[in-house]
Amino acid sequence: MQGTVPSPGRRLPGPEELRNNGVVKNVGEARETPTGTRQEELATGERSTRNRVARSILDHGPSTVTELAGRLGLTPAAVRRHLDALVADDVVEAREQRVYGARTRGRPAKVFVLTDCGRDAFDQSYDKLAADALRWIAEQGGGQEAVAAFARARITAQASAYRKAIESVSPDERTEALAKALSLDGYAATARTAPVGEQLCQHHCPVAHVAEQFPQLCEAETEIFAELLGTHVQRLATIAHGDGVCTTFIPKISTDASASTAGRNPA
Predict the structure, then answer these.
(1) CATH C-level class of 31-120
(2) CA nearest 221: which of 138, 154, 133, 130?
(3) Which percentage of the chain shows pLDDT scores above 90?
(4) Domain extents for the chain?
């Protein structure tokens, strides 16, 4: 399933921390003082120099190298080095500074702003928003069936690309094709052989926290897998239920296999 929701039980970071340390790398870099003397980076983990640069842009908005150097007590050269790395990681991007009123001579200064990827590295509440929205749907007279209808509509729209991928290969390659299509949507999926069939393994679930509260999301996904693959499938494990991987068993598909009701989500 697609979304931006962390796995259940994960501690939310404090206001000084980055949620996704894979976006802004924490490598225990050395720090430069304004005099150019290198010394050990005092901050650890989430408070590495590179994260501090990104956090300063988040807190203060578009910033020049000079402004960042002044706020963080770094040399402009050190700031540029960290900004180069953040640009390479698609965390920040450079823009021309917006000038209000009469322009002065010369080119506008270059400022650095967070990209969408960079903003997503910080605290977000998308999971709470999604869960609140589904709870509101259920409480406004629609009940759990309305949530199920939403889940089916959502995965059906999402599955159009999966269907194209599956239809372009032979029957014995369908599970692998589905895994690759799911990976493009962030599921980190793989296919592997199993006794009398295959297993589709999703190593990441972007909406696991919401799915923990609303299993209709997992059930709709399982149903669409059965429809796409043209056979009964069985969900063996889900990240939303505390398992390490979402695992779906797919029996050996014969050429005359027809779609049937999908296996239910484990309790």
Answers:
(1) mainly alpha
(2) 154
(3) 53
(4) 31-120, 126-251
